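Action item from last week, closing it out:
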Amino acid sequence: MTSMIEFPWQQEAIIIHSQRILNSFQHWLGYSLLDVTGSPLEVAQALFAAPFVLASHGTEENPIFNYGNRKALEQWEMFWDEFTRTPSRKTAEAVEQEERNRLLADAGTKGFSYFSGVRITSTGKRFQIEDGILWNLLDEQNQYCGQAAVYSKCEFI
């Protein structure tokens, strides 16, 4: 395997995870994250190529990213294999951790939460996110399996 996986949406686990992301968003927010039809593979490809930043992490004690679409990988300046080994807390500076923890807990209780905040790329560039949405991911048995976040508005500071 190379250091850069160009087509992660073709992996069976990512195809399934893409459906979880979309289904969970619809469940909590009542509308579709992405208007797309087609086979599960085509849907996974469209989500990966979507015009917004989308990332998710698992349920580990120190959650690790398990998905980032192309825009997320570009935003955090990482390849897929590096991104999917990164603890999600590493994208927020220490001064932002308390607010990030509050946001994660709020979404954990309500199912989703709106957010804004400063995050940091893998090379130390800071950016301000506006109008983000964080939501709980549910598996096919409706069991909690992580959280995802999406945003379109951000500015480097």
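Closing note: Strands lie at 53-57, 65-68, 112-120, 126-138, 144-151, 153-156.
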